[in-house]
TrEMBL record:
One GO MF term attached to the UniProt entry: protein-phosphocysteine-sugar phosphotransferase activity
Name by which UniProt lists this protein: PTS system mannitol-specific EIICB component
UniProt cross-references to InterPro entries, sorted A to Z: PTS_EIIB-like_sf, PTS_EIIB_2, PTS_EIIB_2/3, PTS_EIIB_mannitol, PTS_EIIC, PTS_EIIC_2, PTS_IIC_mtl, Sugar_PTS
GO cellular component, one term: plasma membrane
Reactions this protein catalyses: D-mannitol(out) + N(pros)-phospho-L-histidyl-[protein] = D-mannitol 1-phosphate(in) + L-histidyl-[protein]
Coiled coil: none
Species for this entry: Homoserinimonas aerilata
Chaperone found in the keyword field: no
NCBIfam families named in the record: mtlA, PRK15083.1
Bilayer topology: Multi-pass membrane protein
Gene Ontology biological-process entries: phosphoenolpyruvate-dependent sugar phosphotransferase system
Residue stretches spanning the membrane: 29-51, 57-76, 88-112, 142-166, 234-256, 277-301, 321-345
Amino acid sequence: MTTESTATRAAGGARVGVQRFGTFLSGMIMPNIAAFIAWGLITALFIPTGWTPNETLATLVGPMITFLLPLLIANMGGRMIYDTRGGVVATIATMGVIVGTDIPMFLGAMIVGPLSAWIMKQVDKLWAGKIKAGFEMLVDNFSAGILGAILAVGAFFGIAPLVTGLSSALEAVVDWLVNLGLLPLLSIFVEPGKVLFLNNAINHGVFTPVGTAQATETGKSLLFLVEANPGPGLGLLLAFMFFGVGAARTSAPGAVIIQFLGGIHEIYFPYVLMKPLLVLSVIGGGMTGVLTNVIFQSGLIAPASPGSIFAVLAMTEKGSYLGVILSVILAAAVSFAIAAVILLASRKRDLAAGGAGDLGAAVAATEANKGKSSSVLGNLGGASATATQTKIQNVVFACDAGMGSSAMGASVLRNKVKKAGIDGVTVTNKAIANLDGSEDLVITHQDLTDRAKQKTPGAVHVSVDNFMNSPKYDEVVDLLNQQASE
């Protein structure tokens, strides 16, 4: 039923593993971004140096950063491991690590939350099926309560000091890089990592916890902008608008809107993959952005997610607008300049090749880099044969977070399905981690398809290289039309 890849799993296995771990970390943060934004807005408005200082309302800031945000993270981490029961035990245990220190315990929540839920899950297995009828609720409630209390005490004495030391060490590393003027070097690792779909892991797994701790002390952190700055991607896409060829050039204007205004950075990754040398442009742009914020000592008060210019400006600290805006503009300018040189240097060769440099080449290049080919639904004819046996009614776009690029792709396909007059088919989006096997057809970026197949092997899987403009969408619509006429 599933369209199979002919690939071996060896290639890219480490990357998939890192992606999975990163997704787990970001999975605890992403659903709670709204709470970070709420905290950031209240801080920006009501603290003594805010836009409208209010001593009474400013009392919200401390409890939110100390208790609300870590407990939300812990609860989400617990639910990811052991559903509601895991979330409750994770929340109880995390109170121990919060009270055991005097710093915001984001890292502690990300460790204690899922660990506590896992322990609860193992404990429940000890007497699963052995409890007499009528005593299930009694045993469940007391076992969770007793274990939660024990874990809270353990976190207070055992985990809190360790995480406090770890947080201090990470902050010391950041301060060391700042003092030596080396912080821009982070972009050498961050920008290639983004293109390999490690963006959520980098941003929400590393920079958000450390940056939030910084923001509570200084009122801002430039770490929130290391990954989220939309400037490098903007410069790259603008270079394609002026100097690209083929579909890459014609699709670049739409990608600019999606990336810069919508904050979906994934949209520019295929443009880098089609010419790997272009990673130098986004590295250069990223380093410029970070350096600008270092020079102007500017930063954000909370994470900007998604990395839209609107989100960045909304989260900018009151006295940091000049530095932050310049960091975006200069990052875009440097990225544009480097990308333009690279594109111009290969333009004649691309035009002569008739298709080289086009987005379609990115697929082949990516497959070559991965050491495999993938049939996926490239042969929808094969899928159609399958589809006659399994009626497709539930189409799901899946990405790392389930909020950005997948939502964009679902919107595009939903409009196509509607225009085709096809009824009885739902098109939605969700995170890969939330795929539950109920999906009939799953559409993912080609770099994420292997993970999606592991979550829902019974579905038909379609890989695309560009969520905004993939020819595979028309093939899916044809398939649905074919099914509707049978």
